[in-house]
Amino acid sequence: MELQPIGPAHRRVANPALVKTPLPCPDPAHSPTFHGRSLPLHPPHQPDPKDLARLLTDVATGRISASDALATLTTGPLSTPHAADSNAAGGTATDRVTLDLDRQRRCGFPEVIYGDGKPADMIAGIIRAQQDAGQRSFATRVAAAVAEQVQAQIPDVRFNPIARTLTAGISEPPLPTPLPRSQDAAAVAAPAEIAHAAVVTAGSTDAPVAEEAIETLHWMGIPFRQFDDIGVAGPARLLAAVPHLREASAVVVIAGMEGALPAAVGGHLSAPVFAVPTSVGYGATLGGLTAMLGMLSSCASNVAVVNIDAGFKAAYLAGLVVRQLQRSS
Question: Is the pTM of this model over 0.90?
Answer without folding.
Answer: no
